[in-house]
Amino acid sequence: MSGSASSDDEQLAAALGCTRTLARVLLGRGLADPEAARSFLAPRLGALTPPDAMADRDVAAARLARAVAGGESIAVFGDYDCDGITATAVVTEALRALGGAVTPLLASRYAGGYGVSRDGAERIRATGAGVVVTCDCGSSDHATLGPLRDEGRDIIVIDHHLVPPEPLPALAFLNPHRPECGFPYRGLASCGLAFVLMAAVRRALGRELDLHALLDLVALGTIADVAPLDGDNRILVRAGLERLRRAERPGVRALFEVLARDTVTPVTGHEVGFRLAPRLNAPGRLGAPDLSLELLLAKSLAEARGLAAQVEQVTARRRELTRALEEEAAAEVEREGWGSEAAIVVGRAGWSPGVVGIVAGRLAERHGRPAVVVGFDSGRGTGSVRGPAGWRLFDWIASAAPLLERFGGHQAAAGLEVREERLPTLRAALVASAPAHAPEPGAAVARAVAVPLAVGDPPERVLADLLRLEPCGEANPPPTLAVEATLASTRQVRGGHLKLELALDGGGTLPAFAPNAGGRACSRGERVRILGELRHDTFRGGGAAELLVQALEAAGQEAPAPRGGVALG
Length: 569
Hints:
The protein is α/β, with parallel strands linked by helices.
C-alpha cells in the first residue's frame, strides 16, 4: 500500500517541490490545485479578510482613539482563560504603546466567576475608568454592563461566544456571531478580534504600532480556545507561531527556559495546546489568573523569569489536583454505570471548579460522549461541559436552562452553574436530550484518513514538509501516516513503552515510539502496519524524525483502529 503509485500525487509534488507524502495529504484535503495548495502552505497576512464590515469596529476604534488622545482612563476586563488573558494582553499592550492609560483586570473563578460578574463590575468601578473594554466575555452580561453604562461609562465588548437575542447595553459590540455583523469569517477567537480592533485604533490615531509583535499572543489564545485553524485564524496563528519560536517576548522566553526549549525548532499547534497554554491557564484554575497576564506583559527577562517559575509551581499543583479529581470522577462513573449512558453528568462537593473542565474533557474522550463535571461549594455548583467533536454543547445545555442558575460558552465548550439539589434532575434531563444534539450522521468529526508514507520519501524531509501544514488543531488536524515496514529492532523502555526501529521499504530506517505498548510481543524481522504522527526526535536532535505510534498490527491483518477513529487509507 505504501508503495502504490499515483500520478496525481507525483504531479502535485513536482509542482510544489515537495514530497509525495505531503502531496497525498493535500489531495486528501481537497487541495489538488497547485496555487490553492501554495496559498495554504504559505499563508500571508496580506490575505486576511478586510475587516471593514465587522459590526461596531469603527465605533469602538474611534472611542478608544479619543480616550487615548484625551488621556482618559481605560479599564480592560478579560476572562480568566487563555483566550481572555491573551486578548486582555493584546488590548493592554497596544493601547499603552499608543499612549493610553490602561488598567487591566481579569475575572476569577473564585470571586464572581465567569464574565463581568457583580464582583467584576465593582472592580471596574474602582478603577474610575470612563471607558471599559471586555475581552472574551460580555455577550451575556446584560445585568452588570447595564448599570456600568447607566453610570456614564462607555462599554466596548470584544467576545466570540454565542449571542443572546436581547440587545447588549454597550456602545460597541464586536462579535462575529452577531446576525448583523457583515464580517464573513466567524472563527476568530477573542484575541483575534482584539488584534483586529487594535489595528483600527492605530489607524484612527495615526500613530506607530508594531502589530506583528502581538501575533504571538493571538496564536496562544486562538489555539488554546480550540478555535478553528482555518481561514483568517490560520493566517494569524501561522505568523504568531513564528513569533513564538523566536521568543522575543520576555514572558515567552522565560517559559521556554523553564521548559528547556530552544528557539530554533518550529513551534507547533500541539505544543501550544499541551505545553504552553496549560501553564498560562494554571493560575486561573487554582486562584487568580493575574500571574499569567503579568508574565505576558513583563518588560524584562529578569521579571519574567520570576513569574515563569511561579507559573510552573502552580502548574505542578494543578496536575496533582486534576489527577485526584479525575480518579474520583472516573470511579463514580464506573460505580454508577453512567459510562454506558448517552451523556455523563457527575458532580461532588469540594471538587475544584478550576479543573472540572480538564476532567470533563478526559471523560468525554474516554467514553466518546459529552460530559459535564460539576464542583459544589455550599450547595452551589460550577461545572464545565466538554464533548467529542461535532456535539452542539451550547444547544445541549440550553435545553436544560430552567434547571440552571447560569450558563454560557459555545458549541465546542461550555460552562454552567447549578444548585446541588438539582443535579439528579439535571443529569436525567441532559442524558435524555443528548442524542438530539449529537453530530449529524456522516459528519466529519474524526481525524482525516491516514495517508500512506510514500516509498522513497526520507522521513526527515517528510517531517519538514508536514510542518508546513501548521498550525494543526481544530479544523486542520495533524496528518496521520500509515507505514508498512519491517522491524529492524524492538525493545521495551522504562515506563512500559516500546521503542522500535523500522526498516522502510524504500531504504533507510525510521525510529518509532509506542506509548504503553511495552508488553506487546513483536520481534526483529516482523512485518508491521503502523499508524502514527511524525514528530521531531528530541533525543537525536536536529531534524531527526520519529513516528509516534497510535496503532500497531502485523501487516496483512485488518487495519488497526487508533484513537480518534482514524481509518487506514
